Amino acid sequence: MTSVTVDTVSAFIERHDLLGDGATVLVAVSGGADSMVCLSVLRRLGYDVHALHANYGLREGADDDEALVRQWCDAQSPPVPFTAVSLDAEARAASEDESLQEAARRLRYDALAERAVEIDAPAVTTGHHRDDQAETLLLNLVRGSGPEGLAGMRPARPLQEAPSVSLVRPLLEVSRDDIEAYAEAVGLPWRTDPTNRSLDYDRGVMRTEILPRLDDHFEGARDTLARSASLMREYVDQALRPALDARMDEAFVDRETGGWLSLEALTDEPPVWRRRLLLEALRRTLPTAPCSYALAEELVALVEAQVGRRVEVGGGTVWRERSGLRFLPEDAAPAPLPPTPVDWGEPVTIPQGTLQVERGVDLPESLDSGGPGVAYADAERLNADLTVRTWTDGDRLRPLGLNGTKTVSDLLTDAQVPPHRRNGVCVLCTAEHIAWVVGHRLDHRVRVRPDTEQVARLVLRPREKPSDDCQSS
Q1: Which of 339, 390, 418, 445 is the 20 to 30 Å CA partner of 353?
Q2: pTM to 2 decimal places
Q3: R_g of the chain, CA atoms, integer Å
Q4: Inter-axis angle of helices 130-142 and 221-235, to 10 degrees?
């Protein structure tokens, strides 16, 4: 049994090209049979294995799990490099509004990514096995997953927390029975986590109640389910993925921050492809967002919504623009600028770029010269207390040439400023009112008149080229 398990893992690694010969590999080791066997087998196959154990301190026996893994690693010749990390899953769950299991998982993968980068390991491995694959397929089925969910766990994928590192599952074709038989044959210690069979968790219900019943009535049910996941994965990789990528090449534009998806392409597709395109755009731009059917339906509704509507998703926002949907990560949105003094002739950094107000310039032949980033005003009607800030709801001005006032929000809508850019627009203010919606419109009250004695030039030097929106506005 020992050689069979080692040979099975070796063949699986070779068939899927998972690990290079002798590669440095960081193994996630809980102390359970599957992760301990993963560590042992990879070491036997000649890989430079390192172990990382996550201790959440959530149950009695957690410290004993850590001690078991540490002692085994130290007892090897040469010793296996071992790292233990203490993680506060309860605090994360409370602060991020996550389940305890999800919080623990995210903390664990953050720690694995950090350690893999430290030791220059191209891969992190876990002990997921064939029975886990069967459970995953059934869980995804009852949750209403699409083809990717029914394909189960992949042999390898990029680690989200460190995309240069692969998350590898070398035991995915080995059964739980074979794993325990290997451990017993080589005298490998392990500990059992009772929460793995707890009925408080969906996977525990699947593991202790549903799969055993299937085994009783359908011989080889676990093998059959794992094989179904493999067949679905082949379909996804060979048929669905190429067709989806071809459509994305036509419809999606990658941006430095986020991305943009064509409305025309979405409306031309049947509903099934519309949802696939939307979820794929989410996956590429906002990877922490839940790629669920419910969220896909929200985004489908956004296609028919008014310009400026948005849907908040995990890690960012999807905006409805005139000809597309803009996917914008939350860290790409500019921070609001509080009222900031503007001194004559001194540049001020604002979200849009750099603002400078110059006094005593020559009046040009046309006040329209210089483009939207340049405006001319009566210097005397701008006072010594100039400030600049991000515009807010309710801000109004009297646009140049108009008798009445208008909200800044309406002004930006009329100017067809893409919704994701509006939050970064600033207003230059006198002590009494807005003087300039920076880069867009001057207030009528500070205009240059025939009796103006001194002209001021207002200059915006943009942070980025406006051509970034040539396809999204």
Answers
A1: 445
A2: 0.71
A3: 30
A4: 70
Q: Which two tokens stand for residue 379?
A: 């210097």
- Please count the other Cβ atoms lying within 10 Å of the Cβ belonging to residue 187: 6
Q: Which domains does the chain have, with CATH numbers?
A: 2-228 (3.40.50.620), 255-332 (3.30.465.60), 340-469 (3.50.40.10)
Please give the distance of CA 56 from its chain centroid, rounded to a whole number.
25
Q: How far apart are CA 441 and CA 460, in angstroms?
A: 12
| DSSP structure class, residue 393 | T
What phi, psi does 466 have (nearest 5°)?
A: -65, -15
Residues whose CB falls within 8 Å of the CB of residue 384, separated by 6 or more in sequence, listed in order: none
Residue 420: how many other CB atoms lie within 10 Å: 24
Q: Distance (Å, rounded) from C-alpha 171 to C-alpha 210?
A: 23
Helix ranges (H only) for 252-330 are 263-268, 271-285, 293-303
Neighbours of 99 (CB within 10 A): 12
Across the strands, what pairs with 154? none
β-bridge partners, 377: 456
CA distance readout (Å), 56 to 53, 90, 114, 146, 192: 10, 9, 17, 33, 16
Six-digit token string for 35: 């992760």
223-230 contacts at long range (C-beta below 8 A, 24 or more positions apart): 223/130, 223/175, 225/133, 225/134, 225/137, 225/138, 226/130, 226/133, 226/134, 226/137, 226/152, 226/173, 228/137, 228/150, 229/133, 229/134, 229/136, 229/137, 229/150, 229/151, 229/152, 229/153, 230/152
Residue 41 in contact with residue 9, Cβ under 8 Å? yes
> 122 preceded by cis ω (within 30°)?
no
Q: How confident is the model at residue 339 (pLDDT cuts 50, 70, 90)?
A: very high
- pLDDT by residue (tens digit) across 400-425? 888 889 999 999 888 888 776 787 89
Q: Report the mean per-residue pLDDT for the chain.
A: 89
